[in-house]
Amino acid sequence: MSANDQVQHQLDAVIIGAGFSGMYQMHCLRDRLGLSVLGLEMAEGVGGTWYWNRYPGARCDSESHSYSYYFSEELLKTWTWSERYPGYAEILRYLNFVADRYDLKRSFKFKTKVVSAHYDEAANCWEVCTDDGTRYRTRFLISAVGNLSSANIPTIPGLEQFKGKWYHTGQWPHEGVDFSGLRVGVVGTGSTGIQAIPVIAEQAKTLTVFQRTANYSIPAHNGPLDDAFKAYCKERPEEIRAIMHATPNGHPFYISETLALSRSEEERRTIYEKAWEKGGLRFRASFKDLLSSEAANQTAAEFIKQKIRKTVKDPRKAQLLSDIDHPFAAKRPPIDTNYFETYNLDHVDLVNIREDPITSIVNTGIQTKNALFELDAIVFATGFDAMTRPVLNLNLKGRHGQKLEDAWHAGPLNYLGLQVPGFPNFFMVTGPGSPGVLVNMPVAIEQHVEWISDCIAHMRAKDLHHVEAQAQASAQWMQEVNQAAAATLLPKAKHSWYLGANIPGKPRVFMPYAGGMAHYRKRCETITANGYEGFLMA
Ligand code: NAP
Question: Which atom of ligand 1 is nearest to the CA of 58?
Fold first, then answer.
């Protein structure tokens, strides 16, 4: 037994992760409920996704005034965002500011990885083991590990032979990377690649983009916020909050009530042009049915494809970039700064790896079926094993020693994205089965954290010690999750991480709840009002 291999004292709650979710969960349980709580975090500091994703151009696609905690008027009045969309560095400053304001860091143990946790049925508690050999016993275990925190590094033969340096955007070196004078290859054209490519192109000697699936992107029109807007945010936060709580995706703007095909082609074009000028995710709100009607969606898709063809001068590149195989916004729609314009630079090339696939990586670069691309650096903007992997990596064992991996062999069985049957007193913040990743994350996070905190407060008030999702309620919820997705065009993107389709061998299940945040919130409230319907409490 090592010095550390010892059981620490009994805690009320252990929270895993110190991002947006874990920090607020800590504040609620420690400061509002007065529980003994420990936070465990792999990174050296707070920040979660923003701690790791420091790649060039990393920026949020939620508007900064909505990408904030709304639980405290004081916070809203004290913090001022500088730009329409916050960059990673500003978000990290914000999260550190919140952590310091509430003195949260003292309750987190950083540089500490949870390697496993099992439920001790006799004692009705979880035993959590960390990589330094310490074991913690806790009544409640809360995963606040994020949905996009497990990097997907493709297994391409020969990577270890590459003589240059390679990076995954989700594990970016904190000291930054200087690409000046280098021949750089970027693999992946999702939200991340689309943000990174224009910035890397500014430095690199040559940039070769390896595209498997062409993607839509809307100009972000990022820029500094003016004083009038900053004052509005401080003076009328209730108004902004009310909109965010009323809309399906938690953003601070309404979705139009108009059906796309109810307007003439010319009227539609004017609406899309205006939305294009506004930029960002607001474009998606142009019509009510863009995500439910293929015909409506095609009007938006065609508008964007025309913009791409008009922007990109080289006809070959323009064709490759606008040959998009899925409905608009069926994948999370990227927003960009000069993405398509970047392909007009002479030193930026585009390779269609669907037609000419990557076969290996050799010491000098990337080998496709037909050509060798000599490179000094490779950037994998290849996304994440999303939603389930970060939770599975905790190596949880629930009742009767059941492994979460086994409970989820056919997909992430859960109730409301909050709990898994057979795993009592274990909660997930914005887990699979909840709307989180489809909405403005802080809105979803606050709702979940408050629900979990209220549930624990209720249990304490009633002297209850055990809460667990019922199997039947979970099975029914999975049906609702499927039905909600089927009512949209979201499952039509074949390679999307929403479906787990980006990871070989992963069950193809639409994971997030697509019924909308406002509806989901009401659903949770009703379930609570009905005595925590679908949960077993004892
Ligand atoms: P992603 O959307 O999953 O995109 C990954 C890209 O890598 C895709 O183009 C994919 O091609 C390609 N790829 C994956 N594996 C590959 C392989 N083996 N060979 C070649 N290409 C491969 O990942 P992401 O861009 O990191 O974005 C993930 C999510 O993070 C977003 O959807 C969004 O929710 C969030 N995000 C948000 C922001 C923001 O707020 N602005 C920025 C970045 C990320 P296929 O499409 O063919 O699979």
Answer: 42
Other Cβ atoms closer than 10 A to 107: 20
Are 473 and 399 in contact, with CB atoms under 8 Å apart? no
Q: Is 224 helix (H, G, I), strand (E, B) or coil?
A: strand
pLDDT digits (tens, 9 = 90+) for 306-334: 999 999 999 999 999 999 999 999 999 99
**Residue 497 near residue 383, CB atoms below 8 Å:** yes
Residue 286 has pLDDT above 50, yes or no: yes
User: Which helix (H) or strand (E) covers residue 39, if one does?
Assistant: strand 37-40
**In this predicted model, what pLDDT tens digit does every residue of 178-215 receive, in sequence order?**
999 999 999 999 999 999 999 999 999 999 999 999 99
In tens, the pLDDT along 29-84 reads 999 999 999 999 999 999 999 999 999 999 999 999 999 999 999 999 999 999 99
Neighbours of 472 (CB within 10 A): 11
Yes or no: say if 182 and 204 are a contact pair by the CB < 8 Å rule: yes
Element holding 143 (H helix, E strand):
strand 135-143
The label of the residue with tokens 């979710």 reads 21
pLDDT in tens, 374-386: 999 999 999 999 9
Cβ-count burial 425-456 (b if 16+ within 10 Å, e if not): bbbbbbbbbbbbbbbbbbbbbbbbbbbbbebb
Find out whether 264 and 122 touch, Cβ atoms under 8 Å. Answer: no
CA-closest candidate to residue 165, choices 204, 191, 138, 131: 204
- Best residue among 147, 212, 359, 439 to mutate for probing ligand 1's pocket (most ligand atoms within 8 Å of CB) is 212
Kindly give the number of the ligand 1 atom that is closest to the alpha carbon of 334.
41
Centroid of ligand 1 to alpha carbon of 189 (angstroms): 6
